[in-house]
Amino acid sequence: MGVRPDIVGEGAGLEAPPPRRRRGGWFFQILRESRQAKVGLAVLLFFIVVALLAPWIAPYSVHEQTGAVYCPPSSEHLLGCDDGGIDMLSLLIVGGRTSLVVGFAATFVAMIIGGGIGIIAGYRGGWLDGLLMRITDYFLVIPDLPLAIIVAAVWGPSLPHLIFVIALLLWTSTARIIRSQVKSVRELVYVKRARSLGARNTRIVFRHVLPQIGPLLIANTVLTVAIAIFDETALSFLGLGDPSAVTWGSIIQFAFLRSAISAGAWWAIIPAGLCVALVIMGCYWLGQAIEDALNPRLKVAHLSPRSFRLRPLPGRGKDAE
Amino acid sequence: MRADYVIKRTAFAIITIFVSITLNFFLFRVIPGDAVSNLARVPHATPQLRQALEKEFGLDKPKWEQYVIYLKELAHGNLGVSFANQEPVWSNLKTALANTLPMVTLGTVFAIVIGLIAGVFSAWRRGTKLEQVSTNVAIAFYAFPTQWLALVLLIYLSAFLPSHGMTNDFLLNPTPWEHFKDVLLHMVLPSLTLALTLYGQYTLVVRSAMLETLGEDYVLTARAKGLPQRTIVVRHALRNAMLPTTTLIALSLGYIVAGAILIETVFSWPGIGSAVYQAVTQRDYPMLQGAFLVLTVSVIFANFVADLLYFKLDPRITE
């Protein structure tokens, strides 16, 4: 049978170096090669567009009664009504907006905290690195939700508090990833050369270190958004969200508290959870596709169902068939 | 080397617990508009009453003195008194913990077993249609909000299974066997929910760990030796994949705790999760504080055990 060229090529890393692409090109390449990434991005974009257009596409107001209490889905109310006779579809659209804002804002804050700590720890090293990493370890070990609950309970419920509480739980993975990447990039020859040419620390970090870890950072961000939205529903469900804001989490909470189940109103519960799940799945597909593409070891499988040969990852092009 | 590692992990566990205790104290007392001083803000209270209350709860002392008293009481196993039922927090939590543990254990063990099987299958059969279905189902269960999954099961299964509480109150003078059967039946839905939410995560973790090991050279060697696939998967790949899996399952303990809180709330399971939920809704701060401490300490302890286990599993660790 001879040596399969793709085994040598991918397994041994002897591939010719890829042509230089402009920055950001890697993202489109992953999108081209992975169906998973495409689907994930499409799902996310769909929800983002719906959230942006929410005031215009929501069929009814979410503050007025427009139907009967827990009226079932009909042509007028596609997903029925909640306990106040408010159109569920409108609630979903408007609630999605707040949920996404909370998810993205919490991720943004988490990236700033985690990124800052990771860069300082990785770049400075020494005792500061040790101290910051012990703090990170601490946050990694203690259970998230109870911590969030006591912080939210003490601070009182409001959206900014919710965002900050979620960010407080999520910065650790970012900090660890960035720290280890900064540590390895810092030792690369061209970074050392830049330093010897007199580049300052900030310039090195922003010009040389960050672009290197960009893809990993984006994968991490996308996966963090998923957890942030998940946490939002959990905290809202426990009554620690903003009581006046409509979010996917609060829709589930109200359905639970106002006995949608004994009323048999599945439409008050199921769609909201499915929206949350879809967004999280979209994030997961996209984030995982980027992470997989960054880990060449995953492309080699020495065991596969039918015959002993390389197989492409699901949806990763036909070239290895 | 071995002693070194154990000492290091022990020290980290002890420090972590101590930091949690301190955090617990200061979170509740130092933040402006803090919880404990709210106690003395009874509506229409006269200044005298307020002062008396402050004195009774020791709020007139300086913060550091309160902290020392708190540590002392904690060392004697005193977690304070619940606002809601005037019982010592620890005795409330003890009953709750005893109710939670069997339910959570059942669900977790179940999830680990299914997760291992599904994860190994997904990595082994990578690229097949069945694998894609299995992986995407796992992603979906990973993505479903826990409380939502509990509610959905409640909608569709409450006709067949008890959905509320831990025992049937109308069962008069049950024999121990009847009581056991009753509790077990009530446990099905909460445990099943927990198992389902965890299963998705575990499958994905095992799958990616297996994919890593399946790409290793020793798998290629084993294959070249002509070993049967089953042997390679179980003896070579899975055994090595167990290392990252152990760590990630240990780290998912916090997730299990979160799941327990949400699931017990939905099913009114009288465990520590319900205790947390009630403490939140009733603003019962001593209970909340006690529950946080108990949960944190158990998770830290479990992580400590996992660290030692990891050391036993992987002799390469020499740090």
Walk me through the structure.
- The complex is a heterodimer of chains A (321) and B (319).
- Chain A is an all-alpha fold and 321 residues long.
- In chain A, 66% of the residues lie in helices and 0% in strands.
- Chain A has helices at 5-11, 25-33, 35-52, 54-57, 88-124, 126-141, 144-155, 159-186, 189-196, 201-237, 248-257, 270-294.
- In chain A, helix 3 crosses helix 12 and helix 8 packs antiparallel against helix 10 (201-237).
- Chain A starts with a helix and ends in a 27-residue tail after the last helix.
- The model of chain A is unreliable at 1-16, 305-313 and 315-321 (pLDDT under 50).
- Chain B is mainly alpha-helical and 319 residues long.
- Chain B is built from 13 helices and no strands.
- Chain B is globular and about 85 Å long.
- The termini of chain B are close together.
- In chain B, 40% of the residues are buried.
- At the A-B interface, helix 6, helix 7, helix 10, helix 11 and helix 12 of A face helix 1, helix 6, helix 7, helix 8 and helix 9 of B.
Q: In short, what is this structure?
A:
Chain A is mainly alpha-helical and 321 residues long.
Structural class of chain A: mainly alpha
Characterize the biggest β-sheet of chain A. Answer: none
- What form of chain A results from the Cα inertia axes? elongated
| Alpha carbon gyration radius of chain A | 24 Å
Helix fraction of chain A?
55-70%
Number of strands of chain A: 0
In helices, the fraction of residues of chain B equals over 70%
Supply database-style keywords:
heterodimer; A: 321 residues; mainly alpha; B: 319 residues; 13 helices
SSE arrangement:
The complex is a heterodimer of chains A (321) and B (319).
Chain A: H1 5-11, H2 25-33, H3 35-52, H4 54-57, H5 88-124, H6 126-141, H7 144-155, H8 159-186, H9 189-196, H10 201-237, H11 248-257, H12 270-294
Chain B: H1 2-29, H2 35-39, H3 47-56, H4 63-75, H5 89-124, H6 129-143, H7 146-157, H8 176-214, H9 217-224, H10 229-251, H11 253-267, H12 272-281, H13 285-313
